[in-house]
Amino acid sequence: MATIRTDRPPDVASTQVTHKPALLLSEEHHLCPGCGHPVAWRILLEVLSELKLEKRAIGVIGHGCYTMAATLSDIEWLQCLHGRAPAVATGVKRVQPQAAVFTLQGDGDCATEGLHEIMHAASRGEALTCIMLNNGVFGDTGGQMTATTVVGQRTKTSLEGRDPAVHGHPVPLADILSILPGAAYVARGAVNNAGSVAQTKRFVTQAFETQLAGGFAFVEILTMCPTGWFVPTKDGPDYVAGTFEDTFPVRQLKPTW
Amino acid sequence: MAVDLLQGSDAVAMAALAADCRFFTGYPMLPFTGLLESFARLMPERGGVCLNSASELEGINMALGAAAAGARAGTGSCGQGVALMQEGIAEAALDELPLVIFTMGRGQQDYFQCTRGGGWGDYRTLTMAPKDVAEAVEQTQLLFHLADTYRAPVILYGDYLIGDTHMSVDVSRRDYGPLPPKNWALDGTTGGTGHSRQIWSWAMGTVNDPGLGPDGQWKKVAAKFADLAGTESRHETYQSDDAEYLVVSFGTSGPFVDFVVDELRADGIRIGSFRPITLWPFPEKALREISEGCRQVLVFEVNAGQMVDDVRLSVADRGKVSEIGGVSIDYSGMRQGELLDAMSIRDAVLQAIHGGES
Amino acid sequence: MTVLTRGTVTVNVEQCKGCELCIPACRPGVLRMSSAVNGHGFAYPELSEGCTACRACYDVCPDFVFEVFKFAVPVRSEEAADGG
Predict the structure, then answer these.
(1) How far is A233 from chain C (nearest CA, A)?
(2) Which of A107, B220, B284, B350 could cysteine-pair with A148, CB 3.0–4.6 Å?
């Protein structure tokens, strides 16, 4: 097959159909090849621009590989202690109710260290958009197990695979939050293929619209971490589909259709 | 200047509200609970927010968020609850966020917690220990001003006596002078400008506006506290000018000690008292000068010996220093037990002076 | 056989980390990884005829390698018999 040149835009009449987010300050995120976090981050920046929230957004970000977003995105950020983002965001939102306040945490930060904080923010129905990037591993510290590591998943602290007899079972956070009366919108998406990316972007959009209407919204996003999973880079998407989605079904949980 | 007979918790809450505190949160734990209830009752009419936090950990982090968003914010607990807040207090110090923490102690076993801090990093917490409700009212307002001046978390060290005693006090607003605007506070509006605001204890900044980085930020914060130490120390003395014997105490122990000083002066003993008002920065220079001519420095505190460490560091001749206090908590854990009784303090002073004879 | 090309992409070769997620994502299957490597040692995607401007490559790429363009008028071409 002939190779088409791709080093510059086409000479013939055409429309550019993709645009890097306006709020992106730099593409140099230094995350691993095949990491799902930058895809979720891109979705977030696109949604903030499309909903015209640039001058209202305050991101409350935890500790993880994704924390790079605070150095590379042109919105206001408050970086906080591991697990505490929903509590910090509560304080921010109560004082600046007109702001579009969101949290961005990994599963280690949110479902493990910070399970208490996210549960109570959801129960209180704080008008927040809480986003959890779930790859079932503490990636930033080298790949230890978290509360969402799935049964059988190998990590540095579950080298033979998570065994329920020893390590118990993972926490399906989106499912748990969906039964709380205080939570108005709950969804779980993924970023392992183009279809899931498009669906997750709809979820994130609705999660911000829920906040603007005064309700609590939570979006869990399954992201690839081939490094933490000990799988080849290009097998990350299949690992999400085959291993993760069995435990963490991808769908909108609340409201249900 | 209106003076009202008020319960301490109400008086402190009113003083905070007069100082424009507009966010308060806490988890019930005596003797802090009365303060939380006062804020819950009084905050709504001022248009602020008072929230029950689901834990002390949640409370300090909510207050930190409110401070980051520009509000005068407060929280607190009993010392055992403030133990859970240590990480958050340290983070607020490294973030350079103003916050007033009300540590309502049981006894006086929280001195180390206030002055050494249990959080991580090269930070200090300016701490004031009022002797009565009137001082607590004044110091509450002053602390909100100092927190904003230095952009740091600060502590009001109160206790059961402060919270539950009624006193005639004036809780109207005090003016400590102008402060710079909080241009650093977050409200979303600098988004999309290429120079959006960021609050991060590692001060990473953005690719457009690189920050100091952790090394630079932490050095900056440490230098700020060194500077604060030189300017904000406060203390009070009573009959210390010609004293041979100096009793050092803090907080609500002060009036009891001063009562004993009066009694023993009437018996001809040249005795006086020294009371640090700021537990940190500890008034070490003042104590060194005042204790110069004393034969003994007696430290009365309701704990197993915490402030005595700072007294020994301050006094030129450590050999002069002895402890006459002790742990003293009643079975409910609320009051300061048998020890906070002027006559037993008097006996302890005499025993120290006469070396065993009363 | 006639190949209809409805669009094209730009590839920022030096941005690519060789993760290959774009290859299975491409619906008409017109991306393949290069045999050459970029300055960081990674292979990168190369494009052949038949792009539909579906933008799946852009959507799945973690590294902002692609921009996608849709032609005003699709381009027809004959694919060589040997596929080379």
Answers:
(1) 6
(2) A107
The answer as to whether A21 is a domain residue is no
What ranges make up the beta strands (E) of chain C?
2-11, 31-33, 45-47, 66-78
Beta bridge partners of B154: B100, B126
The matching CATH number, chosen from 3.40.50.970, 3.30.70.20, 1.20.120.680, 3.30.70.1170, for C2-69 is 3.30.70.20
Evaluate whether A170 touches A151 at the Cβ level (below 8 Å). yes
Instruction: Say which CATH class B4-169 falls into.
Output: alpha beta
> In angstroms, what separates the C-alpha of A69 from chain C's closest C-alpha?
13
Asked if A87 and B61 come within 8 Å (Cβ–Cβ), the reply is yes
**pTM recorded for the entire structure:** 0.96
Instruction: With cut-offs at 50, 70 and 90, classify the pLDDT of residue A256.
Output: confident
Q: Quick: pLDDT tens for A147-169.
A: 999 999 999 999 999 999 999 99
> What domain range is A60 assigned to?
37-254
C71 vs B300: CA distance, rounded Å: 86
Query: Chain A 3-22, CB below 8 Å of chain C: which residues?
Result: 3-4, 6-10, 12-20
Residues of A in contact with B64 (CB under 8 A): 80, 88, 91
Domain coordinates of chain B in residue numbers?
4-169, 235-354
Residues lower than pLDDT 70 in chain B = 1, 331-339, 356-358
- Report d(CA A132, CA A173) in Å as an integer: 9
Residues of A in contact with B214 (CB under 8 A): none
What number is the ipTM of this complex? 0.96
Cβ pairs bridging A and B (under 8 Å) = 155
Structure confidence at residue B357 (pLDDT): 41
